[in-house]
Design goal:
Keywords: Membrane, Transmembrane, Transmembrane helix. 41% of the residues lie in helices and 21% in strands. It is of the alpha/beta class. The chain folds into 3 domains: 46 residues; 142 residues, Response regulator (Rossmann fold, 3-Layer(aba) Sandwich); 158 residues, Rossmann fold, CATH 3.40.50.2300.
C-alpha cells in the first residue's frame, strides 16, 4: 500500500527557526510549485537582508582620521551615534584611529596608512582631514573607499565636493555653515558691545581656504553692523613661527586699538596655545571677543557660537550607516549641522567688566561660571 500521508519538508533559512512544509509526491503539481516559490522567496528575503543590513554581516573596519584634539567632541558624538544605530565596537564594527595630524601636510600620510590597511570606510574630521583622505584614495587608485567628513568648512568651496546635492565622488558628510555662523557671531558681538566700531582679526595666509572664506564673509557683513575690520597679519599659519608672531602681535595691541576681537577658523587658530594668546590679550584689554570652540571659552574666552560638535558627530554616524547599507556617497547630499550652541563664560564677562544682555543669556545653551 502506498503511504499517502504527507511528510514534512523542513527548510532552515539562516539562523531562523525551521519552516515545515507538508510534502507528498501525490500533491497537485500547482501546490508543489507554490511551495517551491515560497521557499525561494524566503531565501531571497534572507539574502536581501544580509545585503542591506550591515549588522548581519562580518565586522566592518572604519578608519577615523583626526586633525586636532580640539574637536574631540565630534569623535565622542560619532561613537555614541554609531552605538545608537546598533554598531558595537569589536563585534560588528572595528575602528582604526589615527593620532592627531595637527598640520595639513601630515594628513595625507595618515590617510594613506588607513588606505594601506584596506579599511571599509574613512571618517575624516574637518575638511583638512577630508582633503588628505581624498588625495590618498586618489593617489592609490582606491576611490572605492568611501570618505565621510565631519565638521568640514565649505566643502564645495575647498573642492572636496562638486555640490551639496551630489559630491560627484567618494565623499559626503556634514559641513560647517560659515556664512550663517559668521554673520550671527558679529551680531552677538554687537549686542554685547553696542558701541563697538573696530573689530580685530588675525589675517593669515591660510592654507585652508575656509579661513579666507570666513574672513571675506566677515568683511562683507561688517558694514551692516557699522563696524570696521582691523587685520593683524600673520605670515606663517602653523608651527612655532606662527605662535611667535601671534605673541608679538597680541603684546603690541593697546587699549583703544580695537573694541572687540573675532577669532577666525583656520590652521593658525587651531593650536590651543595660539588661541590662549588671543584670550589673554582680550582679557588684558577688557574687550569682548568671539571664539570658535567651546573649549576656548572654557579656557577664558568670552563666548563662542558654533555647531554642536556632539550632534555633528551623531549626524556623521547616520552617513556612515547609509553607506554601509549600500548607498553611494555621491547619492547622499551633504548636510549642515542640525544644532548650533551658544556658550558664554560669565566669569570672563565679570573679569573684563562687560554685561551680557539678558536676551543672550536667555538663549545661551551653556553658561560657564554662573
Amino acid at each position: 500500500m502506498i503511504n499517502t500521508q504527507p511528510t514534512s519538508l523542513k527548510v532552515k533559512v539562516g539562523n531562523s527557526a525551521e519552516i515545515n512544509f507538508p510534502h507528498n509526491k501525490e500533491f497537485p503539481r500547482g501546490r508543489r510549485h507554490f511551495i517551491s516559490i515560497v521557499i525561494l522567496v524566503a531565501v531571497m528575503v534572507f539574502l536581501g537582508f544580509v545585503w542591506v543590513n550591515p549588522l548581519a554581516t562580518k565586522a566592518r573596519t572604519i578608519g577615523v582620521l583626526r586633525y586636532i584634539e580640539e574637536l574631540k567632541q565630534v569623535e565622542t558624538g560619532f561613537y555614541q551615534g554609531m552605538e545608537n544605530l546598533g554598531y558595537k565596537d569589536g563585534e560588528n564594527i572595528r575602528y582604526l584611529i589615527t593620532p592627531y595630524g595637527e598640520s595639513p601636510q601630515r594628513m595625507q600620510a595618515l590617510a594613506q596608512e588607513l588606505v594601506d590597511q584596506d579599511v571599509d570606510l574613512i571618517v575624516a574630521i574637518t575638511n583638512v582631514a577630508a582633503s588628505g583622505a581624498k588625495k590618498a584614495t586618489e593617489a592609490s587608485g582606491r576611490t572605492d573607499i568611501p570618505i565621510i567628513f565631519a565638521y568640514a568648512n565649505t566643502p564645495d568651496v575647498t573642492g572636496l565636493v562638486k555640490s551639496f546635492a551630489s559630491s560627484g565622488n567618494n565623499l559626503t558628510g556634514v559641513a560647517v555653515n560659515l556664512v550663517e555662523l559668521t554673520a550671527k557671531k558679529l551680531e552677538f558681538l554687537k549686542r554685547i558691545s553696542p558701541s563697538l566700531k573696530r573689530v580685530g582679526i588675525l589675517d593669515a595666509d591660510f592654507t585652508d581656504p575656509a579661513g579666507k572664506f570666513a574672513q571675506n564673509e566677515l568683511q562683507k557683513v561688517a558694514p551692516q553692523f557699522g563696524v570696521e575690520i582691523v587685520s593683524y597679519k600673520v605670515v606663517n599659519d602653523i608651527g612655532p613661527k606662527a605662535m611667535a608672531e601671534i605673541a608679538t602681535l597680541t603684546e603690541k595691541i593697546k587699549p583703544g586699538d580695537v573694541d572687540a576681537f573675532f577669532y577666525l577658523p583656520g590652521p593658525v587658530s587651531n593650536p590651543p596655545q595660539n588661541a590662549q594668546l588671543v584670550i589673554d590679550m582680550t582679557r588684558r584689554l577688557k574687550i569682548s571677543a568671539v571664539f570658535l570652540l567651546h573649549s576656548q571659552v572654557e579656557r577664558g574666552g568670552l563666548f563662542a557660537y558654533a555647531h554642536d560638535m556632539v550632534v555633528v558627530g551623531k549626524q556623521t554616524a547616520t552617513f556612515v550607516d547609509k553607506v554601509l547599507r549600500g548607498n553611494r556617497p555621491s547619492n547622499i547630499p551633504v548636510e549642515f549641522p542640525e544644532k548650533n550652541t551658544l556658550v558664554i563664560n560669565l566669569s570672563t564677562a565679570r573679569a573684563i567688566e562687560i554685561t551680557i544682555p539678558e536676551s543672550l543669556l536667555n538663549i545661551a545653551d551653556i553658561k560657564i561660571g554662573q
